[in-house]
Design a protein that fits this description.
Length: 291
């Protein structure tokens, strides 16, 4: 799968940019491109308060393509996972260049940020930001080298419970910071009853091409894997302190027994943004890898 593309190719440095990816909207601001950013999604919330001054064009999954066209951008920033192929193709059909990325590791995320800086002509402004992230990444890798991994459960949804496997950016953030994702090898099964081991899975032909990176799990299954840390990010599902109570019936689980259930800012594990250095430090601290 191609991780970085710009189609059709840019003919000049873009002057009008629309971002359909909240984390990259923040990065565009950090790279000094505020005056060139003319449109964002409803979910672009950083940096405050500056982001509020930009025109919004709908959600990441349901943008108003006509509204985007009226903004006459020469570059739209998109992501394979967060945005829909049909919307990207409609924009490309109108001759608008679309930067599409799909980072699944920290290094791929850094590469995506570097590529974005290059095509927007702000490599010099972005260089200090990228240097901070790369330094924090190398520092984190050094701290985790040779250490036992901490078993982690990190759900991304509730009703039903869903989590992440090894083929996700969230997984790699956990791994980089010394975590062992307890569902790393678990693939999504279809239908839901099969995912919860309540009926046989559909045949291979029926599930071909389906996204299997986000398995649905039962908390009893989680408890059997004995996580030492439970992280409850506030996005995409808005986990809060009240959700800690769901784990009280598992006192034998080390994370519950030791009080290591953390409600966290979801940007720490989900966003590839200009503050990934802060994300790496915050996550490794939660996993107690400082020093």
């Amino acid at each position: 799968m191609t991780l970085l593309t710009v189609t059709p190719p840019l003919q000049r440095t873009p002057q009008r940019i629309v971002s359909l990816v909240p984390s990259l909207t923040e990065a565009l601001f950090a790279f000094g491109l505020e005056r060139h950013l003319v449109g964002i999604t409803d979910y672009c919330v950083a940096p405050q308060p500056h982001v509020r001054t930009k025109a919004t064009i709908g959600g990441t999954k349901n943008p108003d393509v006509e509204a985007i066209l009226r903004l006459t951008p020469d570059l739209v920033v998109a992501n394979i996972e967060e945005n829909r192929r049909e919307d990207v193709e409609r924009l490309q059909a109108h001759g608008i260049s679309v930067f599409v990325c799909f980072p699944q590791t920290v290094l791929q995320a850094i590469a995506a940020l570097r590529a974005l800086a290059q095509i927007t002509g702000v490599e010099a402004q972005a260089s200090p930001v990228l240097a901070r992230i790369e330094s924090a990444y190398e520092e984190t890798k050094g701290l985790t080298a040779g250490r036992r991994k901490v078993h982690v459960f990190c759900p991304i949804w509730k009703h039903p419970w869903m989590t992440i496997n090894r083929d996700t950016f969230v997984h790699h953030m956990l791994e980089t910071c010394g975590g062992a994702n307890i569902f790393a090898e678990r693939e999504r099964r279809f239908p839901l009853a099969a995912d919860l081991v309540e009926q046989p899975e559909w045949g291979a032909a029926h599930v071909a091409g389906r996204d299997r990176r986000y398995p649905r799990v039962a908390l009893d299954e989680m408890a059997g894997l004995m996580p030492e840390v439970i992280l409850l990010p506030d996005e995409p599902y808005p986990f809060s302190e009240a959700d800690r109570a769901d784990f009280a019936r598992f006192p034998q689980v080390p994370a519950v027994r030791d009080g290591r259930i953390h409600v966290i800012d979801g940007k720490i594990v989900c966003w590839y943004w200009s503050r990934m250095d802060e994300s790496l430090r915050a996550l490794r601290q939660l996993l107690r890898l400082e020093g």
